[in-house]
Automatic annotation (TrEMBL):
Residues 1-23 form the signal peptide. The keyword Nucleus does not apply. Transmembrane segments: none annotated. It is a lipid-anchor. InterPro entries: Lipoprotein_NlpA, TAT_signal. It is found in: Membrane. Belongs to the nlpA lipoprotein family. Keywords: Lipoprotein, Membrane, Palmitate, Signal. Coiled coil: none annotated. This is Lipoprotein. Gene3D superfamilies: Periplasmic binding protein-like II (3.40.190.10). It holds the Pfam family Lipoprotein_9.
């Protein structure tokens, strides 16, 4: 790892001491999930821009990356899709700036009790994310695979289990924190798991999922986000350009083999 890159690991149990915003010549502090986001950032600096000073703040636990950005403890973050960001903005009462759309992590359906969706037991428990945008996303994936049907007006980012109109196998639903979804696999018939958390748990979505979201036209591309005040910062703009380069797209394609899908540059 070059001297210009530093990776800091933070969990919800740690006090933050990463400091206020600094001058434009200071390292750009980017909050990122370990997989695949921090790996992609490391590739950018190692292979494409060794002169770009970057501090990658890897997160786990109950830290809220958008709150770190709001409070000036980071300059940007790279972990989320736009529907999740919009729900965070509504809760926080502020607006952030989307710099670049980088990749899609297809949401997947996973089971340790069935080898195919047709084998899922009647009355089985299905675990879903407990945040609104990903709950809706998971329900849409279940519907796309013929397991449930939602009322027509719920075909957006706000669908909940209350919008079910058909549930032929009488699935029961539990909503848990997204990082805990892989751990639920031993206790449920089916788990709907975000791609990054599947990777962190040692799953390979393209191989292990019983079904995956389509990447084409997927509205859940992961994005580089900053504050409105830093939206034109040269460091942020350069990082956004690098993250959407053909070189990064090729790296994502080769490294993750369909488990993470690049948003190809036009």
């Amino acid at each position: 790892m070059p001297a210009s890159t530093r990776r800091v690991f933070l969990s919800g149990a740690l006090a933050l001491s990463i400091g206020p915003a600094r001058a434009a010549s200071a390292p750009l502090r980017v909050v990122a999930s370990s997989l695949p986001h921090a790996e992609i950032l490391e590739f950018v600096v190692d292979k494409l821009a060794p002169d770009l000073p970057l501090k990658v703040i890897e997160i786990s636990g109950d830290l809220r990356p958008n709150a770190l950005l709001r409070d000036g403890d980071a300059d940007a973050n790279f972990f989320q899709h736009v529907p999740f960001l919009r729900s965070e903005e509504a809760a926080m009462g502020m607006r952030f700036a989307v710099v670049a759309a980088v990749h899609v992590e297809p949401l997947g359906l996973y089971s340790r009790r069935a080898k195919a969706l047709a084998d899922l037991p009647a009355g089985g428990v299905v675990s879903l994310s407990n945040n609104v945008s990903n709950t809706s996303r998971g329900l849409s994936l279940l519907q796309a695979n013929g397991l449930i049907r939602l009322r027509a007006k719920a075909a957006d980012v706000n669908a909940t289990v209350d919008d079910l109109v058909e549930n032929p196998k009488n699935f029961r639903f539990v909503e848990i924190a997204p990082p805990q979804l892989p751990r639920s696999l031993d206790d449920v018939a089916l788990a709907v798991i975000n791609g990054n958390y599947a990777l962190e748990a040692g799953l390979e979505p393209a191989r292990d999922a019983l079904a995956l979201e389509r990447a084409e036209g997927n509205p859940y591309a992961n994005v580089l986000v900053t504050t409105e005040g830093l939206a034109k910062d040269p460091r942020v703009l350069r990082l956004g350009t690098l993250l959407t380069s053909a070189e990064v797209a090729d790296f994502i394609g080769k490294r993750y083999r369909g488990s993470v899908v690049p948003v190809r540059p036009s």
